[in-house]
Each structure stands twice: as structure tokens, then as C-alpha cells.
Amino acid sequence: MTRGKITTATPNHGWVSFVGSGPGDPDLLTVRAVELLEQADVVVTEAPEHSALVRTVLGLPDPADLPEDAPVPGPELVDGGFGEDGQPLTHAARAKVVVKQAKRGLRVVRLMTGDPFLYASGPEEAQACVKAGIGFEIVPGVSSVSAVPAYAGIPLTTKDHREVAVVTCGEKVDWSQYADDRTLVLLSAVGQIADVAQALVAAGRSAQTPVAMTRVGTTTMQSTVTSTLEHIAADARAARMTPPAVTVVGKVVDLRETLSWFETKPLFGWRVLVPRTKDQAGPVVTRLRGYGAVPEEVPTISVEPPRNPQQMDKAVRGLVEGRYEWIAFTSVNAVRAVREKFEEYGLDARAFSGLKIAAVGDKTAQAIAAWGLRADLVPSGEQSAAGLLEDWPEYDEVLDPINRVFLPRADIATENLVAGLVDLGWECDDVTAYRTVRATPPPAPTRDAIKSGKFDAVVFTSSSTVRNLVGIAGKPHPSTVIAVIGPATAKTAEEHGLRVDVLAPAPDVEQLVDALADFGASRRAAMVEAGTPVTRPSERKPSTRSRKVRAE
Description:
Structural class: alpha/beta
Radius of gyration: 29 Å
Shape: globular
Strand order of the largest sheet: 14-13-15-16-12-11-17-18-19-20
Number of helices: 18
Oligomer: single chain
């Protein structure tokens, strides 16, 4: 659906939308916030992470990945957090930046951490817009006051505890006002927690009152310390707690023991390497994030057109002329290559009339369906070339008017499928539809992290990603969990000296990630049962990794 533009903005009169970005998790942005970011001419940020947030929400590439002189897509990003001298901008200076952009007659999104009207400079900046005669709107965001405790598994109210007080500790506070058993939410309390705890006890609170401090809440770097007023200062110091953090004081903290849901995700905080082609891996990354992982994509191969397109041109013409009985797609890339060739010739799915279609894997079948076609044959067993041959019918001179198969594939594909089809009586045009090219090596810090075990896991979605990653970056460290999409990929990994820990039950990227999550959940449960601290693979010695897990 195409979204309409904001009618209030005209070439002569800008418009400012003060948009709350929430506490950190991009998924907590409101629908209205996303809509406005899509329509914005300029986005005025206030935090270093906001630029990445905008790119993530809008699906924009990192400028570092673009050619040197290529235009940067998306809205113009203006830093409203720091001035040219590197010093933080005051509220007044930030308001001037916003007004200046709006006076250009542009649609301006002023992206603000949390909620614009809750512990933020939204009111002051909005007043500056009023003074300048510029229209504005307020788009509330999820506040860290409620979101961070929720992500820590701590409800601020229950049927037995209905009162909450929010206190900013940066000012002089009369703590005697909070001597009762109300739930307290403390902001900016990390550096003063010893004095705050002492003052609350002096005011009448029990020294055993539960306390929880959560830093960088709602992100995969979130960590929580639970303690009491008596010990929170020492415990926070031992855990090296640093701002930004939200502290909760009160009996509701005890519910974290049963309600903690975010930090107990099976892959929480795992740094997972995703070797990929330049334009793939989106579903893998999304699913990994859902399990609490921190995925990092590394391009290993690029899918390029064949060097000599004549063979592909001839095959497509033959398809249109009725030369083939079957076309067999063994990958999504093969579907994409044929579809691009069709579009080049001005053809559409009607050219497949009378042609039987085979597909290996659900994703390939879905790519065909997205084209308006339906696969006549998908392997009933193993989703591979071997599985396809198991179900492929023998050529029958009576039933099959044509004995030829069109097989568009990669330049490095094996010959097993062709040989098997020939054995079944078929003639096969094995055509190079695309080729794979090894990518340039990743930056030195990434290569070092791969070799030194700073990644907790790596997911391989094909044999080529194994070969190319090892070729451009070296072998993953023995402590790194290796997850592969199928038996062929597992064999390639083992040939390169890697021990496979997780094998997907089917050649599907989502099932691969699910299998890795099952591995992580089992590993975590074993640590909890043994009474040992829950650590990530990168925090343990390689010798502890002794069990190979195959997802059932």
C-alpha cells in the first residue's frame, strides 16, 4: 500500500513531527512513527544509534557499503545530539536545529529517545516551533520507565501493589516522601545508588527491600542485577553497571524470578555470524533476533549473471517454443535468474503453459508461487537433488511427448542431478543461469573475531558459504557453535575441519535457526540445572563443547 504524504507540509511551510523512538528495541516503534520516517525529508536525531535505527526501519543500506560517489538513499540525517565541536547540544540549541530544517519547507521528523513528552526536551522544542510559526505534531513513544522493567520481567503494578512513583535522581530528592511500600522507578540512579539506598533505609524502608537495576534495557545487551537496598550498591559495582539504566525498588521485583522472559531467550546475547550472499539472509537475521541473538552479516559470495548469456538466452527461447517437458529449479537464485531473463524479453508466467515444474525446497517453491506458478513436483523426502531424483518419473515415450529437461543452475553445481536424469531416460540442458563470486574479505576486526572465538555461533546456509567464509576470513574458532542447513553443507564443513553441532531437520533457513535455538535452550537448561552461571559459548573454553546435536 502506498502511503500518502503529510498534507500539512508545503514548499513554503515546514512541518515537524516529534517522534518517540522508544527505549532501544526497533520493534517497539509505533506504526505512526514508521509511517512518518517513510515520508520524512529530514530526520533530526539525538543519539548515535538513531542513524542505524532509521536505516533498519526503512531497509536502507549502510553508507559504508555504497560506492564512493553513490547518492545515499532515504531522508537526510541531521545530528541533533552534538554540535560541530563535538559538545552535546543544549535544549535551546537543538530546537534551533529543528526550526532551521523546518524553515526549509521540509517534512522534519525529530526523533527522540523514549517519549517526546516524558523526561525529554519535547516541550521546549515544540514551544520553539510555536514561536517560529511552524506546525508540529507529537507521536508518543514507548517510555523506558515502563518498557525496561517489562523487558526485565518486572511488572510495575499488580493487584497488591497499585502505586508507582518515578523519580529522577539527578536532582535533590526528599526521600522521606518515599518511605512507604510504593514501587519506585529510579532514573539516573547508577552513580548515586549507594546514597539513594541509604536514604531510603533511613526514611523507613526495610534494608531487605528488593531492588533491580537494568542497563541498556530492551536491547540484546540488556543485563539486570537483582539485590536489596542493603547490598545493591556493592552488587551493582561488582556487575559493572553503567548508564543508561532503570532501577526498580519494591516487592514487585521478586516476580522477576518467574516472569523474566527476555534475558532467558535461548540465544539471548549470542553474537551469531551469518555468512551470506550480498542480497540474501534477511529471514535468517530476523529470526535470530527473535530468539535474542545479535546477528552479524558477512558477505561471502555475490550472485552474478553468467559471463556468456547466450546459453541462457537460447534455453529461454526454447522454453517459449515448447522445447522442454520439464524445468527444474534447485534454488531461489535459479528462479530469480529465469524470471529476470523473462522480464528482459517482456515475457510473463504464461510462457510456462504446458510445462511441468520441479522445485527443491519450500523456499524455492514459494519463489515460484510468487511468480503465479505452482510446482508440479517437490521432493517428498530429502529436499536436495538426490531427493528430487527419488521422486522424478522415468521417461515414458507414450506419456511424455518431449524428453528434454531445462535445468537452470549455478556455475558450480554438481553433475549428480544431470547424471540421474539421464539414467531415467531424459535429455538434460544443464544451463549456467548464474555464477557465484567470492566476496572481498571482511574487515580485520571481524576476521579476528571469527578466528579468536568472539562469535558464539555461525550459521551456514550452503556449502559455498562454508568454502567462501573459510577462504576470505579463516576457520571459526573451536568454541564457536556450527549450525548447517543440510547434510551436504555439513559434509563440506567437516571437510574444512569444522565440527558440526546443529543440523537443520530440513533445508530451510527458518528451521535452521529454530534448531540453533533448540540447541541454545538445551544448553541453558543444563547450566541452570547444574547451578552454574549461564554463559555464552564465546565465554567458555572450547573443551566444554562436546555434544553434537541433531534437531529432531
